[in-house]
């Protein structure tokens, strides 16, 4: 059933909050950089601009991923979101980190005269408040979805990249604001504008580290990851409870979208089961699995002798 506008907004609240914050912050940072000549402020402006574009790409990817299956893509377009998540990681590394390091290096080679940093401090304060608000929203939404799982394990097991990408981006943005603030202060306190350039390079290195982590997670999703072990165990338990199934050879899964899973099952059926009875049993098992686990969008059950099957847990 299609989501209503209200439910769609709620599902994307993290992305919308981050986009609104980053657009406003980017404009403020560029104005401050033009007034003060601060390299780290210019770098932070580029960072916020890249983040804004990233949120637009993720929203676009989510919309594309919701297209229904067709003859060319029988399992749907859900994994297109994973492609755009990988593109976001590349943009953070190439544009965000690359421009930051390059701009910082230029500022070290040819430092600009120091100007009144008051504008920088004001913008940094406003940016911190806005980024902090977006970060809190991202934390709350991610905490609500992770359950009892640890933070890092929840990120590794998450099949929806939008949530953890915004969380990573906002965390990197807050770290970058701290570095930019220290860089501006140290440059004026010690009368050396090259420190501001060094701060820009540090911001670039932070972005490169975040981009590397995001690329690794997005790559795994793009290649194809199994469902959570709890879901696989539940499927196996339900199959083993069937009296006419003598053994479950394997349960193999792959996410075709954040909320859709394809499962392939090999099971050894009772030898006394007639073909028609087996077909009826398989239909009943599929209906039972879909009722208990709605995220199972496609179920394939193959009757197979245990000794003939490649048994994989």
Topology (SSEs and partners):
Blueprint: H1 5-11, H2 13-36, H3 39-65, H4 80-109, H5 118-146, H6 151-157, H7 161-189, H8 194-223, H9 229-240, E1 245-257, E2 260-269, H10 275-292, E3 296-303
Parallel strand pairs: 2-3
Antiparallel strand pairs: 1-2
Helix pairs in contact: 2-3, 2-5, 3-4, 3-7, 3-8, 4-8, 5-7, 7-8
Describe the structure.
With 313 residues, this protein is mainly alpha-helical. Helix content is 68%, strand content 10%. It has two domains: 5-223, Cation efflux protein transmembrane domain (Alpha-lytic protease prodomain-like, Up-down Bundle); 229-308, Cation efflux protein, cytoplasmic domain (Alpha-Beta Plaits, 2-Layer Sandwich). The protein has ten helices and three strands; from the N terminus they run αααααααααββαβ. α10 (275-292) links the parallel β2 and β3. The protein is elongated. It is a multi-pass membrane protein. The chain crosses the membrane at residues 12-35, 81-102, 122-142, 163-186, 198-216.
Per DSSP, what share of the residues sits in E-state strands of 2 or more residues?
A: 5-15%
Main sheet: strands, sense, barrel: 3 strands, mixed
Oligomer: single chain
Q: Overall pLDDT, averaged?
A: 86
The N- to C-terminal Cα distance equals: 34 Å
**General form:** elongated
Question: Gist?
Answer:
The protein is mainly alpha-helical and 313 residues long.
């Amino acid at each position: 059933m299609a989501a209503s506008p209200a439910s769609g907004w709620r599902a994307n609240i993290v992305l919308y909050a981050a986009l609104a914050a980053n657009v406003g912050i980017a404009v403020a940072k560029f104005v401050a950089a033009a007034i003060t000549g601060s390299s780290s402020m210019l770098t932070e402006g580029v960072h916020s601009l890249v983040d804004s574009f990233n949120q637009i790409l993720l929203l676009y990817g989510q919309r594309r991923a919701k297209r229904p299956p067709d003859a060319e893509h029988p399992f749907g377009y859900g994994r297109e979101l994973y492609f755009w998540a990988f593109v976001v990681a590349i943009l953070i590394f190439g544009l965000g980190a690359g421009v930051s390091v390059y701009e910082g290096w230029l500022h070290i080679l040819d430092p600009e005269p120091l100007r009144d940093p008051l504008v920088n401090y004001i913008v940094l304060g406003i940016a911190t408040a806005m980024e902090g608000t977006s970060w809190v929203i991202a934390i709350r939404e991610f905490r609500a979805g992770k359950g009892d799982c640890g933070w890092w394990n929840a990120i590794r097991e998450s099949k929806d990249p939008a949530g953890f990408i915004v969380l990573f981006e906002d965390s990197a943005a807050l770290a970058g604001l701290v570095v930019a603030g220290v860089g501006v202060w140290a440059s004026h306190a010690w009368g050396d504008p090259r420190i501001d350039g060094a701060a820009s390079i540090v911001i670039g290195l932070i972005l490169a580290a975040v981009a590397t982590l995001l690329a690794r997670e997005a790559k795994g999703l793009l290649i194809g990851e199994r469902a959570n072990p709890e879901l696989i165990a539940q499927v196996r338990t339900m199959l083993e409870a069937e009296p006419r199934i003598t053994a479950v050879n394997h349960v193999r899964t792959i996410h075709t979208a954040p909320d859709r899973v394809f499962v392939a099952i090999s099971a050894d059926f009772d030898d006394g089961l007639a073909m028609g009875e087996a077909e009826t049993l398989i239909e009943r098992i599929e209906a039972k699995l879909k009722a208990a686990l709605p995220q199972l969008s496609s179920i394939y059950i193959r009757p197979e002798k245990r000794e003939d099957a490649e048994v994989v847990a």
